[in-house]
Write a sequence for this structure.
C-alpha cells in the first residue's frame, strides 16, 4: 500500500481521485488521473501537509469489511484506540519510536512545545480552541513520561535574534538582501527545489525547532552532564514539514539526529487519549527553566507579519535604536503584508507572505534583483502555523477559515504585550556569554547555523494525465 | 420549504461531481446532536445517509428519491417508514432492522448504520453469549432532506463543486413547459412573419 517512502502517503484504497489535494499543491507533487487513486512524489513533496488537511476521502463504514480498519491503523502506526475516520492522505509518524523512548529507562526524554500547538489541542477534545491552558499541556506531557518539557519560544527568540544580526550585518557590510526567513521548513525546501539560486539569500540560521534540537544535544546535555546519545529529543510541532527537516543529514551530531522524533498536535491527542489522559482535568505545571520561555513570542507564527516585525524591531535594537517603531500594514489580498521601520535616516521594509503559491512573485522579484524589501518572511501554510499540516483536521471546507482565525485570535489575545527586547533578554544573553562565548563565534555558529542544498527539480505545468 | 405536490429529492450532477465525499461528511455531521468541527473529536464512525459511488468514469452520491409510492414504506412490516412533509422518513424507534427496505429500494439508497448517540443500543437476547455482544445495533438509515436544518440539506451547501441540487420534478416540469410555450411563440413568429 505504501507507494513511496515520503512522509506524505495517499492510501490507494481510499483515494477517490477528486484531486482537491493536487489542485492545492504548490509544488505539483501529487499526480494521477482524475477519479483514480493519486500518488505523491517524495522527491517533489515539501511535506507542508495541506493535502492531509484537505483530504475528504474517508474509510466509510458502508464500503468495507469492519476489520480492515484495524489493519489500516496498524499500517499507519496509529494507536488502535483512535476513533476518528481515516482519510486517504495522511502523514507518517514517529509514534512507535516515541512510545518506545518513553518507557526506556536509560533515556532522558525531552520535549519542546510549539506555542501554536497548545491552543488548538483543545479542539481534539471537543473543546473551544484555547480552553486547555499551556500549563495543562505541560502537565499532560509530564504525565506521558517526558522528563523535561520546554517551550519553544526561547529558541524562537534566538532565531529572531540571529536573523536580525544577519539583516544588520548584510545591511552594513553588504551581502545578499533580502534575508529570507528560514523558520518554515516547507518554505526552505520549496526554495531549495524551485528557486535553488536563492539559497544564499536564506538566513543561515536554523529554524527555531531545530535550534531547540541542537541546544538540547549540545547545551542541555552539558547541563545534565550526560551523553547526548542518552537524550531523546521530541519536537511537538504544528508542522508536518518539520518531520522531513528533522531527518536532514546536516542536522545531527554523528549518528544522532538533533530532533529524534516529531510529534504533531493531532498525534499528541491520539497518545493522550490512548493513555487515558485528559489534559483539561490536570493541574497546571510550569515549563522547565533551563530554556526559559519568552511569553511575548508565543503569538509569533500565528499571524502573518509577526516574525518580520520582531526581526525588524530587533534589528533596530542591534543598530542602536532604542524602541524602534515598526509599522505594519494589514494583510492584503494574496496573503501578503509589509512592515516598515525607520532606523536613523533609512527605512527598512520587510515583506511577509503565507502560502507557497503567493510567495512565487516575491521570490521572482528577488531573483530579478527587483525587491525593495530587506527581509522576506515566508510561511507555507495558508494562515501560518495555526493552519499547519499537523494541526487538528477541520472536517468541512467552509469551516476551515473561521476556525483558523479563531486559533490565531485565541493565541494572540492571551499576549497583548508587544516587543520582547531580545537583544537584552537576560536568559539569551546568559546562554551566549556562558555557553557560546560570543555571538557569531565558531561555537554558536556550529549549533545555530545550517546550510542548504540546491535540489533543482523541473516543475512542469500541472497535467491531468501524468500518472 | 414550500410544500409541492410531488416530493423533492436531491440529485447529483455527474459532470460536476469529483467524488471527494465531502457531502458524506457534511451529511453525517448534520445528523449528529453536537456536530464536531475537527476529525479528532469523532468517537464513532461517520454514518452518512448518502453514498458516493465511483463506477468507472462516474462518481456521484446516491441517495433517496423520496418516491411517491415508496417501496421501502410498502414493505416495512413495522410501519417504521412513513411519508410526512413531502419526505419519506424512517422512524428508527420502530425499526427492527429487518433489511426489507434495504432490499426493496431500487436505488440502493438505504443503508444500515449503527444506532449511536444518546439512545444506547439494547442488545437482542439472541446476541447474548453468542460472541456478538459488541456488534452494534443497526437501523435503517436514509436521507431525510435534513429535516430541521435552516440552510437546507447539508450535502448541497457543503459540496465544493456545487454538484448537488434539490429537485422538484413538478416545479421543474412546469418551468420547462413555460419555456416550451415561449419557444412555441418564437417559432410561430418565425414561420408566419
Amino acid at each position: 500500500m505504501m507507494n513511496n517512502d515520503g512522509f506524505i502517503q495517499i492510501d490507494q484504497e481510499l483515494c477517490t481521485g477528486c484531486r482537491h489535494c493536487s489542485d492545492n499543491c504548490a509544488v505539483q507533487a501529487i499526480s494521477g488521473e482524475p477519479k483514480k487513486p493519486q500518488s505523491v512524489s517524495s522527491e517533489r513533496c515539501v511535506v507542508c501537509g495541506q493535502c492531509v488537511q484537505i483530504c475528504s476521502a474517508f474509510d466509510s463504514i458502508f464500503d468495507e469489511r469492519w476489520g480492515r480498519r484495524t489493519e489500516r491503523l496498524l499500517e499507519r502506526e496509529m494507536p488502535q484506540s483512535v476513533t476518528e475516520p481515516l482519510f486517504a492522505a495522511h502523514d507518517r509518524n514517529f509514534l512507535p519510536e516515541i512510545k518506545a523512548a518513553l518507557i526506556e529507562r536509560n533515556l532522558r526524554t525531552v520535549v519542546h512545545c510549539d506555542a501554536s500547538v497548545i491552543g488548538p489541542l483543545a479542539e481534539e477534545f471537543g473543546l473551544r480552541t484555547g480552553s486547555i491552558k499551556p500549563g495543562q499541556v505541560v502537565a499532560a506531557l509530564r504525565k506521558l513520561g517526558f522528563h523535561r518539557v520546554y517551550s519553544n519560544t526561547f529558541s524562537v527568540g534566538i532565531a529572531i535574534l540571529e536573523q536580525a544580526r544577519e539583516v544588520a550585518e548584510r545591511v552594513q557590510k553588504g551581502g545578499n538582501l533580502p534575508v529570507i526567513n528560514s523558520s518554515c521548513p516547507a518554505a526552505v525546501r520549496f526554495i531549495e527545489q524551485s528557486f535553488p539560486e536563492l539559497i544564499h539569500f536564506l538566513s543561515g540560521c536554523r529554524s527555531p525547532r531545530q535550534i531547540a534540537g541542537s541546544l538540547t544535544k549540545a547545551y542541555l546535555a552539558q547541563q545534565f552532564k550526560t551523553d547526548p546519545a542518552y537524550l531523546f529529543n521530541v519536537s511537538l510541532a504544528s508542522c508536518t514539514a518539520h518531520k522531513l527537516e528533522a531527518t536532514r543529514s546536516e542536522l545531527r551530531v554523528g549518528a544522532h539526529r538533533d530532533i529524534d522524533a516529531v510529534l504533531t498536535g493531532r498525534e499528541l491527542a491520539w497518545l493522550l487519549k490512548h493513555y487515558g489522559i485528559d489534559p483539561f482535568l490536570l493541574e497546571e505545571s510550569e515549563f522547565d527553566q533551563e530554556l526559559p520561555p519568552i511569553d511575548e513570542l508565543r503569538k509569533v507564527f500565528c499571524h502573518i507579519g509577526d516574525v518580520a516585525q520582531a526581526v525588524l524591531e530587533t534589528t533596530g535594537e542591534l543598530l542602536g535604536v532604542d524602541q524602534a517603531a515598526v509599522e505594519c500594514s494589514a494583510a492584503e489580498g494574496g496573503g501578503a503584508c509589509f512592515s516598515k521601520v525607520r532606523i536613523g535616516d533609512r527605512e527598512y521594509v520587510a515583506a511577509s507572505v503565507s502560502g507557497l503559491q503567493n510567495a512565487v512573485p516575491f521570490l521572482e522579484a528577488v531573483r530579478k534583483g527587483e525587491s525593495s524589501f530587506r527581509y522576506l518572511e515566508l510561511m507555507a501554510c495558508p494562515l501560518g502555523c495555526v493552519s499547519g499540516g499537523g494541526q487538528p483536521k477541520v472536517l468541512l471546507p467552509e469551516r476551515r477559515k473561521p476556525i483558523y482565525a479563531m486559533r490565531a485570535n485565541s493565541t494572540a489575545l492571551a499576549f497583548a504585550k508587544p516587543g520582547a527586547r531580545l537583544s537584552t533578554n537576560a536568559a539569551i544573553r546568559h546562554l551566549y556569554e556562558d555557553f557560546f562565548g560570543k555571538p557569531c563565534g565558531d561555537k554558536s555558529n556550529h549549533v545555530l547555523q545550517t546550510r542548504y542544498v540546491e535540489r533543482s527539480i523541473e516543475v512542469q505545468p500541472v497535467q491531468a494525465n501524468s500518472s | 420549504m414550500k410544500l409541492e405536490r410531488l416530493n423533492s429529492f436531491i440529485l447529483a450532477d455527474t459532470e460536476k461531481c469529483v467524488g471527494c465525499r465531502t457531502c458524506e461528511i457534511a451529511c453525517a455531521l448534520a445528523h449528529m446532536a453536537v456536530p464536531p468541527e475537527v476529525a479528532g473529536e469523532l468517537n464513532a464512525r461517520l454514518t452518512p445517509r448518502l453514498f458516493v459511488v465511483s463506477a468507472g468514469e462516474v462518481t456521484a452520491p446516491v441517495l433517496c428519491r423520496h418516491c411517491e409510492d415508496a417501496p421501502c414504506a410498502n414493505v416495512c412490516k413495522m410501519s417504521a417508514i412513513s411519508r410526512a412533509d413531502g419526505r419519506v422518513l424512517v422512524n428508527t424507534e420502530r425499526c427492527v432492522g429487518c433489511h426489507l427496505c434495504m432490499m426493496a429500494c431500487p436505488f440502493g439508497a438505504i443503508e444500515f448504520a449503527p444506532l449511536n448517540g444518546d439512545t444506547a443500543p439494547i442488545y437482542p437476547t439472541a446476541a447474548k453469549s453468542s460472541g456478538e455482544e459488541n456488534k452494534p445495533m443497526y437501523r435503517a438509515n436514509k436521507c431525510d432532506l435534513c429535516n430541521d436544518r435552516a440552510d437546507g440539506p447539508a450535502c448541497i451547501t457543503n459540496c465544493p463543486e456545487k454538484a448537488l441540487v434539490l429537485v422538484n420534478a413538478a416545479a421543474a416540469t412546469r418551468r420547462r413547459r413555460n419555456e416550451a410555450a415561449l419557444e412555441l411563440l418564437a417559432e410561430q413568429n418565425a414561420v408566419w412573419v
The interface with chain B takes residues 16-20, 34-35, 56-58, 60-62, 83-85, 87, 123-126, 266, 269-270, 392-399, 403 of chain A (CB under 8 Å). The radius of gyration of chain A is 21 Å.
